[in-house]
Write a structure and sequence with these properties.
The relative contact order is 0.15. The protein folds into two domains: about 90 residues, Translation factors (Elongation Factor Tu (Ef-tu), domain 3); about 100 residues, Rossmann fold (3-Layer(aba) Sandwich), CATH 3.40.50.80. The chain is globular, with a radius of gyration of 18 Å. It is built from four helices and 15 strands. It is mainly beta.
Length: about 250
C-alpha cells in the first residue's frame, strides 16, 4: 500500500458533540488507497510555528469523492489546534498508514465499538461485510456520533452504562448471543478494557477477533518505537506499523 505526505485543504470541520469533531480534507489520493482501520498523521498548518512539533494519529473515518474524513476527540494541544481549523485552512497529512481490518469475504462479522471506537465504522461498513454493530457508551449524550454515521442496511444495537438508551450495562453484554449463534469473526475498536474482554470472550469460543489499537506515537512508521505493545508470546509489536489492526490473540492484554 502506498502513502503520501501532503498539505491538504480543509473542506469541513465541525463539532458534532461536546469535544468531538468531524473534519474532512481534500484527498484525491485517498479514494482508492485508504483501507478500513488505517490512519493518517495530521497537524494543523501554522505558518512560522513548529508547535506542536508532532503530528497526531487519527483513524480514517471515511474516504469518498476526493475527501478523507476524520472523527476525533479534543484531548490535548494538537487536537485542540485541529479543532480551530475552518474551511480553507491547511493541514499537513501523512498517510494512509498501518494495517487495516482484514477482508473476510463471505464471513459473518460483528463490529463491537465503544466510545470513539466508532471512528472507522463508515469506511468499514462500505468496504467490509459487517452484519451487526454493537455500540457502547456511558450515557445517551455520547451517542451523538450516530448522527454522522452512514450505515445503510446495518443494524446497530446499543448499550449504555446508565441505561439511558438500549441495554443497561456494558456493550460486551450484547456479544454472547452472536458468539453462540455462530458469528465467524469479530472486529473491535474502543477502550482497552472493552477490547480485552471482547478478545477473551472470542478466545473462549474459538471465534476470530481483530482489534484496532490506539497508542501515542511520534512518527507513524515504526522508527520512534513509542507505540510498543506487549505480545502474548513475548516481545513487542508496534501499533503504527504492525497495527493498528491486529489479531487480538497475539496481544498480552494484562
Amino acid at each position: 500500500m502506498g502513502r503520501t505526505s501532503v498539505s491538504a485543504r480543509v473542506v469541513e470541520n465541525r463539532p458534532i458533540a461536546p469535544g468531538i469533531y468531524r473534519m474532512g480534507i481534500e484527498a484525491p489520493w485517498a479514494d482508492g488507497l485508504v483501507m478500513p482501520g488505517q490512519f493518517c498523521m495530521l497537524q494543523a498548518a501554522c505558518p512560522g510555528s513548529s508547535d506542536p512539533l508532532l503530528k497526531r494519529p487519527l483513524s480514517v473515518h471515511d474516504a469518498e469523492d476526493g475527501v478523507a474524513w476524520f472523527l476525533y476527540r479534543v484531548v490535548g494541544k494538537g487536537t485542540g489546534l485541529l479543532a480551530r481549523l475552518v474551511k480553507g485552512d491547511m493541514v499537513a497529512a501523512v498517510g494512509p498508514l498501518g494495517q487495516p481490518f482484514p477482508s473476510l469475504a463471505g464471513r459473518r462479522v460483528v463490529f463491537v465499538a465503544g466510545g470513539m471506537g466508532v471512528a472507522p465504522l463508515p469506511l468499514l461498513a462500505r468496504r467490509r461485510r459487517v452484519m451487526k454493530v454493537l455500540l457502547g457508551a456511558r450515557r445517551e449524550e455520547e451517542l451523538a456520533v450516530l448522527d454522522v454515521l452512514d450505515l445503510p442496511g446495518i443494524e446497530v444495537e446499543i448499550a449504555t452504562e446508565d441505561g439511558s438508551v438500549g441495554h443497561k450495562g456494558l456493550v460486551t453484554d450484547l456479544l454472547p448471543p452472536f458468539l453462540e449463534g455462530g458469528v465467524e469473526a469479530v472486529f473491535t475498536c474502543g477502550p482497552m478494557p472493552m477490547m480485552r474482554e471482547v478478545s477473551r470472550m472470542c478466545g473462549a469460543r474459538g471465534t476470530a477477533c481483530w482489534a484496532s489499537l490506539e497508542a501515542a506515537m511520534a512518527c507513524g512508521s515504526g522508527l520512534c518505537m513509542g507505540c510498543a505493545v506487549r505480545k502474548a508470546g513475548g516481545g513487542y509489536l508496534h501499533v503504527c506499523s504492525d497495527g493498528p489492526v491486529v489479531d487480538a490473540a497475539v496481544i498480552a492484554w494484562g
